[in-house]
Automatic annotation (TrEMBL):
GO terms for molecular function: manganese ion binding; metalloaminopeptidase activity. PROSITE patterns: CYTOSOL_AP. SUPFAM superfamilies: Zn-dependent exopeptidases (SSF53187). Keywords: Aminopeptidase, Hydrolase, Manganese, Protease. Belongs to the peptidase M17 family. It comes from Paraurantiacibacter namhicola. This is Cytosol aminopeptidase. InterPro entries: Leucine_aapep/pepB, Macro_dom-like, Peptidase_M17_C, Peptidase_M17_N_1. GO terms for biological process: proteolysis.
Length: 462
């Protein structure tokens, strides 16, 4: 993420951007010259959302120009209303005519995200810079955009380069940059304290060995908040192996860990007054002679026993040990992120993360923060009536149900067993991937629920 995409407005030269919607376009056009109206007509610009027009200066001798963008409401800007402009305009410096960009600073930055790590000849086009009169908001806007783009970077990186060791390296970078304390338990050492993390990850090759990653940050006297992220760096399905099509996007199965790491860094960079506990169980669910099997019974950090009904329901296993650890420190709140179930995608599609909480107040605060910041989650229930779907004849619980009903909620109910009694908890079942591009949001790794969670935390603890 280029740190110079937004800059304070000190009166420097800049190309003007005018915003208009379809209802106001005729009035706007009356103030233009004939050649200017003709230029917009040639571009088929009518003021519809995400349209971009280039308008020449009125004086034919002047080689200047200004831009016009179509938005839903020029008076109420959203995160994404300038994103198409940021994608389409040539490199240069721009100023929004008559008002400050406000929340649109976010989409202006994220629209210029490019994942070119593996391209031998990356696009060298220069940045589009937007000026803002509110210089005090620049740092906050940059932290927000960097967090979103970090999620994209981590998810977009293939599993060979973003395995458990890669997630550990990212956690180490964040801890060093912000004065956090890193602790990592790796390989066979997991068997005692984190047996489900060990069981899921033990079949992977040594350089992809499983690990439990923790970062502690902040004053010990501050309210304790735990952020937990599912770090399945590649999911073959284990012995219940996925199809080729099912494996194609499984580099993104560490999307929960990507959200947790990015949120943790955003909290640290913003100096939010909390005692942060980041927990990332990182594994590869591989197939080998020592892979865990359907029918096995696993021990857990919690002390419960889990019968394995499906080795492809592995994310909830590693989260179980991680949530137990987070609960042991008596946090005021635990939030976990996980690319957990296909059922959530069937129910809500890719754009809305499924949100499950123990308390209505927690859900209400997250939904309100999401709506206010164009990152709305959608709440699904945790109904006690479905706990029986996880019953086991030989263990305390099964990890998978044998029927096709309410899969996202049943996965949430499994996780609930490992969260401490009385602990406030929110669970995001997120896709972590955008299958179709939108302005400011390219196809590929994507953050959902990240901004909702940060702004909820900021409102609650700052």
């Amino acid at each position: 993420m280029n740190t110079e995409l937004i800059q304070p407005d000190r009166g420097q030269d800049a190309t003007s951007i005018h915003l208009v919607n379809a209802d106001g376009f005729d009035t706007f056009a009356k103030g233009l010259s004939g050649p200017q109206r003709a230029a917009l007509a040639a571009q088929k610009f009518t003021g519809k959302g995400y349209q971009v027009g280039i308008v020449p200066a009125k004086d034919a001798k002047d080689d200047g120009w200004f831009a016009v963008g179509g938005v839903a409401n020029p008076e109420e800007l959203s995160s994404w209303c300038l994103a198409k402009l940021a994608e389409s305009l040539p490199a240069g410096t721009y100023r929004l005519d008559g008002r400050d960009p406000g929340p649109a600073l976010h989409g202006w930055q994220t629209a210029q995200y490019v994942f070119d790590r593996y391209k031998s000849d990356p696009d060298a086009e220069g940045p589009r810079v937007l000026l803002t009169e509110k210089a005090g908001r620049i740092d906050a806007a940059m932290f927000e955009a960097r967090a979103e783009c970090l999620v994209r970077d981590l998810i977009n990186t293939p599993a060979e380069d973003m395995g458990p060791a890669g997630l550990e390296a990212e956690a180490e970078r964040i801890a060093k940059a912000h004065g956090g304390k890193l602790n990592v338990v790796r390989g066979d050492a997991l068997e005692q304290g984190f047996p489900m993390v060990h069981a899921v990850g033990r079949a992977a090759a040594r350089h992809h060995a499983p690990r439990l990653i923790e970062v502690e940050w902040g004053k010990e006297s501050a309210p304790r908040v735990a952020i937990v992220g599912k770090g399945v760096c590649f999911d073959s399905g284990g012995l219940d192996v996925k199809s080729a099509a099912g494996m194609k996007l499984m580099k993104k199965d560490m999307g929960g860990a990507a959200h947790a790491l990015a949120l943790a860094e955003w909290i640290m960079a913003s100096e939010l007054p909390v005692r942060l506990h980041l927990v990332v169980p990182a594994v590869e669910n591989a197939i080998s002679s020592n892979a865990f099997r359907p029918g096995d019974v696993l021990q857990t950090r919690k002390g419960l026993t889990v019968e394995i009904g499906n080795t492809d329901a592995e994310g909830r296993l590693i989260l179980g040990d991680a949530l137990t650890l987070a609960s042991e420190h008596d946090p005021e709140l635990i939030v976990d992120f996980a690319t957990l179930t296909g059922a959530a995608r069937v129910a809500l599609g890719p754009d809305f993360p499924a949100l499950m909480t123990r308390r209505d107040e927690t859900a209400d605060a997250l939904i309100a923060a999401g709506r206010a910041n164009d990152d709305e989650p959608w709440r699904l229930p945790l109904p006690e009536a479905y706990v029986e779907y996880l019953a086991s004849d030989i263990a305390d619980t099964n990890n998978a149900q044998s029927n096709p009903y309410a899969g996202a909620s049943v996965a949430g109910l499994f996780l609930d067993k490992f969260v401490g009694d009385g602990v406030e908890w929110a669970h995001f079942d997120t896709f972590g991937w955008r299958p179709f591009p939108k302005p400011g949001r390219p196809k590929g790794g994507a953050a959902y629920g990240l901004r909702a969670t940060y702004h909820m935390l900021k409102g609650r603890f700052s």
